[in-house]
TrEMBL record:
GO function term, MF aspect, one: heme binding
UniProt cofactor(s): heme b
SUPFAM superfamilies: Dimeric alpha+beta barrel
A Pfam family hit: Dyp_perox_C
Top-rank lineage group of the source organism: Bacteria
Disordered: region residues: 301-335
UniProt name for this protein: Dyp-type peroxidase family protein
Length: 335
């Protein structure tokens, strides 16, 4: 069994999210740097093993075919913009994702600094976010985030590609969005109105029953079920971020791991288009999606011993198109 990258950890107090694009001619340097990442994390983490340092690398759909020959992950596809009647989930550039997390911000910085030094001029940074854990696992809006993430074997099954894609067993799909929150408008709401927007009590973190929960609440619109009526989930590792000054941006960096991107796409449709159409997520009136991208996180073995680079000018396996009308990521639920 290939060794997955370390995704499932306890909640750490700090994280760094880097989204990069690959410059023309930078493919070889990127392949080399991806192979060095596991060893770099081990070396830096050995200085403070109690701090639970990890880093996960993801590769975007278009970048995959620039870096590797041969098969590609079966469900890796471009993120496409999704436009609702009121709110939009934008698609933004992203060839590489680096998600670093630890209990110490200096360890996250060290890995990010050293890894981007390896990359040099082969990439351009399009988004860099330094996240922090906010009080008792709360989002920037004051509600507990990630309450109902699966645990144990359920979490492993939720994020891990299985035998349905034998060339990529042990990998995971990753979707990200950065949201900018209008805290002034949010804080002006009564607590009761905030709770109705989320579908959960603020202090006690108790989900409203179906008879009470508004149909346009964030939680109500983020339940996705299979053909048997069983709820399908993702593993979320969101982090608040923000500048202190009134003019600075602040909000949530959403990141979710899954064995396939379909559930996130369905969540996104519910949020922005509505379920039924027009019944969009009330939370979007206070927080705006400004980025959106999707990646595949292969196993550590793959990063360190990748397939050959594609021949110049070749197109081994053209990237699949996104499903019509689908987005490829969603904020998930504050559950």
């Amino acid at each position: 069994m290939p060794t997955p990258q370390t995704i499932l950890t306890r909640k750490t107090s700090a994280a760094v999210f880097l989204v990069l694009t690959i410059n023309d001619g930078g493919e070889d340097a990127v392949r080399d740097a991806l192979g060095e990442l596991p060893g770099l994390v081990t070396a830096v983490g050995s200085r403070a093993p109690e701090a639970a340092l990890t880093a996960v690398a993801g590769i975007g759909s278009a970048a995959w075919d620039r870096l590797y020959s041969g098969p590609r992950p079966a469900s890796l596809r471009p993120f496409t913009e999704l436009v609702g009647a009121v709110h939009t989930a934008p698609a933004t550039p992203g060839d590489l994702l680096l998600h670093i997390k630890a209990d110490r911000a200096d360890l996250c910085f060290e890995v990010g600094h050293r890894w981007t030094a390896l990359l040099g001029g082969s990439v351009t940074t399009v988004d860099e976010v330094h996240g922090f854990r906010y009080f008792d696992l709360r989002d920037i809006i004051g509600f507990v985030d990630g309450t109902e993430n699966p645990t144990g074997q359920d979490a492993i099954d939720t994020i891990t590609v299985g035998d349905e894609d034998p060339d990529f067993v042990g990998g995971s799909y990753v979707v990200v969005q950065r949201y900018v929150t209008d805290l002034g408008a949010w804080d002006a709401l009564k607590v009761e109105d905030q709770e109705n927007a989320i579908g959960r009590t603020k202090l006690e973190n108790i989900e409203m029953d179906d008879a009470t929960k508004p149909i346009n609440s964030h939680i109500a619109l983020n339940v996705v079920t299979d053909d048997d009526g069983e709820e399908i989930d993702v593993v979320r590792d969101n982090m608040p971020y923000g500048d202190i000054s009134g003019s600075g941006e602040k909000g949530t960096f959403y990141i979710a791991y899954s064995s396939a991107p379909d559930v996130s796409e369905e969540m996104l449709r519910h949020m922005f288009i509505g379920e039924p159409e027009g019944n969009y997520d009330r939370l979007l009136d206070f927080t705006t999606a400004v980025t959106g991208a999707q990646f595949f996180a292969p196993t550590a073995d793959f990063l360190q011993d990748p397939p050959a680079a594609p021949e110049p000018g070749s197109a081994d396996s053209p990237a699949p198109e996104a499903a019509p009308g689908d987005g490829s990521l969603g904020i998930g639920s504050l559950r």
